[in-house]
Amino acid sequence: MLRIASASLAGTAIEFYDFFVYGTAAALVLGPLFFPTFSPMAGMLAAFATFGVGFVARPLGSVLFGHIGDRHGRRPVLVASLLLTGAATVAVGCVPTYDSIGVAAPALLLGLRFLQGLGLGGEWGGAVLLTAEHAPAERRGLWSSFPQIGPAVGFLLANGVMLLLSATLSDAQFAAWGWRVPFCAAGVLALAGLWLRSSLAESPQFLGIDDRARVPLAEVARGHWRLVLLTAGALAVGYAVFYAVTTWSLAYATERLGVDRTVMLACIMAAVVVKGALTPLAAVLGDRFGRRPMCLIGCTACALWMFPMVGLLSTGEPLLMFLGFLVAMLAFITMFAVIAAYLPELYEPRVRCTGAAVGYNLGGVLGGALTPIVATAVAQGEGVPWGVAAYLTGIALLSLGCFALLPETRPVRVVAAETTAGEAAAG
Known about the structure:
Blueprint: H1 2-34, H2 40-72, H3 74-92, H4 98-101, H5 104-134, H6 140-168, H7 171-176, H8 181-197, H9 204-207, H10 216-223, H11 225-255, H12 261-289, H13 291-314, H14 318-346, H15 352-369, H16 371-378, H17 386-405, H18 412-426
């Protein structure tokens, strides 16, 4: 299990590195380079729009790779998705700017971002299912949380490289070539990920399916559409909070508040470090107390914290901004540490790769694609951007309602064993 979980973590970290490095570049540099004829605000909105295209592509990727995963196995998904995302990311680092090739530059950027999202849409389902379906029922939450640590590692890698470049290069050097370095490094990381995943065994639950779905998406649409919509709505808050912290706040603080980008990257990265470190602990609590209670607690905490977080961000003080980000990340991981066990348990094995991945990635469209764009537009004007806090709180309340309608999935035999042990102790 340790080998399987570690390989899933490493691959997920690499794919999310590819995805996150684009978000950081969009916040810092892509607007002036690829949309120079726009005003600064319009250029940032356009850059965030290309960022959002990756989220739109993710459900399509989950359909494509979900079909492969439900028909041919989870393992092929891991290899194909990693190759696609890695190649697209390297290509982004090679795209000439608007000054060199005109409107073809943002068009190429858009297309490559779409391919990034397509690959990542398949990655999560393959990595999580391979781990969850190997894991023992009583520790499924813990083992399945390893791929959920991957996004934190990928984010830290992406932003660590950006932070190093930002601290050592002048603004002119960073805009000329420095921002390309993290994209080109993705090729080396992708090769490392392929090597790690080359020896993984296929999921035993998949091998045990006698009657595999001919068209998994059709079965999901026919028999599980309500579940897909509920899981998408439930997960929207996690995406919204994460990208409000890691993408929108970076752009807002550097452009509007005049905070040094190195300081902002350091504040955000410190909060993400804590989030990643506490992911296994939250997953263990999910194994002990159930998936749904953890999700309800985390979602409620998000709803209560968005106004304080925006207020702390608006001070421009590093320690206060870090506090705002930290609590938001803790609320986020209370939910998302258990999601990797929760979603697969909600779907039957024959359509699990498609159903879980589509629900997960539709949540990304609702929460991740729109948040930087909406928040940037709402935050125009003077004063504290309370409209952003209201928007995030509204998404949290929507997700809370969806979680309330989902069932608990912690395996019955685990609950029964705990009940028997408790009765024996009492006797």
